[in-house]
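Severity: low
Component: inverse-folding endpoint
Summary: output formatting inconsistent between runs
Steps to reproduce: submit the following structure tokens with default settings.
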């Protein structure tokens, strides 16, 4: 990794949003550095994406990112496996500091930092993520046809997910994963109308199928009850990764996501945002890639305009 080199653009986050931006910026002949920290983002689990256009057999998220990285490198983008721990405005751009002491100066910054899921936790739950532990009905609902599914969550949105899941399989149970009921009586009535069992209790163990690591057979509750479950949908929200956005003083939405316009500009000049960190809904590879590509076009155009303005000033002063 180069020490303190200058780049046109620094991208924080090497998921689909950051990679789509890197490909497009590099192809616009902009020098680009992508920082991606070792902790997993959403695209670092073993899930196979079946709804991303152009891959009829499905595309593993990790493979998509490996291909995206190779594509960006092919056009000259550079990568640094490091967490960005600080960004400061400096004359002409920004200074980014990596956790290992590395860093760079860049004229523009794109935040594509994603979110961290508040997974339903039990010992060893990580081995199930992306195989039989999910969060997104848009992503994985189709594959649930005829399966035994448990939804874990304690609000009306979790109840809505259980109701929607009922379109895919009649074998759905909602577990609050909490000691007390947080759903409204109306939501509980809706579940009852569809004969979806509502269980108040906390999950403390997941048992895998024999010889199939990562594939659930059942869940156990703290009080000892055992629930057969082939798949678990964790409906417990996510935390947007916005520490850097806050430190730059960016405007955030009520939910803590980075606010931006439709061209992915944030409230601060030459700072852009893309992907799951920008909104609560439509957390998908396709939307992340779309926003990353849009941010790249905008950043490239803003740099072009800044250079034109600078050249015009220089010509006037000469
Ligand atoms: C189990 C599972 C199944 C899914 N299934 C599907 C599916 O079938 N179809 C679909 O379209 N979507 C699916 N998704 C959602 C999809 O993966 C996300 O919407 C997508 O990955 C978002 O892309 P992103 O680039 O915004 O964020 P991410 O992919 O999360 O990437 C963000 C990256 O930024 C890095 N980062 C954060 N902060 C820093 C920092 N300070 N310094 C350096 N790096 C940093 C993170 O480590 C991460 O690598 C699934 C997600 C999960 C978890």
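Observed output (run 2 of 3):
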């Amino acid at each position: 990794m180069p020490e303190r080199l200058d780049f046109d653009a620094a991208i924080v986050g090497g998921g689909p949003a950051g990679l789509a931006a890197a490909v497009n910026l590099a192809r616009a002949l902009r020098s680009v550095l992508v920082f991606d920290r070792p902790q997993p983002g959403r695209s670092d689990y073993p899930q196979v994406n079946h709804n991303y256009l152009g891959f009829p057999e499905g595309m593993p998220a990790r493979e998509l990112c490996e291909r995206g990285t190779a594509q960006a490198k092919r056009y000259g983008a550079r990568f640094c496996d490091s967490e960005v721990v600080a960004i400061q405005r400096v004359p002409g751009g920004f200074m980014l500091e990596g956790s290992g002491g590395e860093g760079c100066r860049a004229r523009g910054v794109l935040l594509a930092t994603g979110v961290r899921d508040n997974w339903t936790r039990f010992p060893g739950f990580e081995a199930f993520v992306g195989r039989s532990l999910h969060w997104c009905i848009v992503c994985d609902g189709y594959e649930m046809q005829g399966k035994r599914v448990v939804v874990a969550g304690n609000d009306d949105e979790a109840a809505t997910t259980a109701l929607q899941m009922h379109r895919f399989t009649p074998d759905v149970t909602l577990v609050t994963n909490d000691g007390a009921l947080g759903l409204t009586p109306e939501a509980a009535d809706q579940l009852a109308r569809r004969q979806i069992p509502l269980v108040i209790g906390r999950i403390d163990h997941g048992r895998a199928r024999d010889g199939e690591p990562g594939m659930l057979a059942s869940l156990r509750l703290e009080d000892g009850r055992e629930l057969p479950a082939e798949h678990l949908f964790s409906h417990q929200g996510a935390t947007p990764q916005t520490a850097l956005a806050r430190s730059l003083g960016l405007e955030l939405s009520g939910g803590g996501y980075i606010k931006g316009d439709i061209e992915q500009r944030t409230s601060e000049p030459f700072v852009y945002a893309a992907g799951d960190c920008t909104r609560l809904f439509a957390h998908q590879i396709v939307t992340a890639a779309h926003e990353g590509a849009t941010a790249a076009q905008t950043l490239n155009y803003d740099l072009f305009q800044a250079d034109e303005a600078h050249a015009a000033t220089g010509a006037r002063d000469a």
